Amino acid sequence: MRWRRFVAYWLPPILYLGLIFALSSMSSPPVPKGINQDFLHYPEYAVLGFLLARALQQGRPGRTSAGLLALTVGLCAIWGVSDEMHQAFVPGRVPDLLDLWHDFIGACIGAAAFGAWKLWRG
């Protein structure tokens, strides 16, 4: 039963973190034509924020606490810092504080979306 709970709640954000790491390891990650790469940080980290908040909540009923959402954003921010540091070692990539800011905003959006989703679901 615990294994199923882990797979259901923690495997999605762990796999998603792996995807972020893989994309950050590319000198020239695939970006849809006509889209500014900086913009992609928002949805990238919004998804991470939603998945991580969901994992931390683990299906418990009721509203999501502000503390859980703050923890979610903090963990996403830590990952963002490590991601920017990682890019310092990837040819053609550089760490950027503005990217970290976009990551933080995206994480806030994702965590807030999860909180709103929990409120809506009741």
What would you say this structure looks like, in words?
- Helices cover 70% and strands 0% of the residues.
- With 122 residues, the chain is mainly alpha-helical.
- It has one domain.
- The longest helix has 25 residues.
- The relative contact order is 0.19.
Radius of gyration: 15 Å
Calculate the mean pLDDT score and round it. Answer: 94
Multimeric state of these chains? single chain
| SS-based class | mainly alpha
How many beta-strand runs? 0
Number of domains: 1
Brief description of this entry?
Helices cover 70% and strands 0% of the residues. It is mainly α and 122 residues long.
List the SSEs and their pairings:
Blueprint: H1 2-9, H2 11-24, H3 41-57, H4 66-87, H5 97-121
Helix pairs in contact: 2-3, 2-4, 3-4, 3-5, 4-5
What features would you highlight for this structure?
mainly alpha, 5 helices, globular
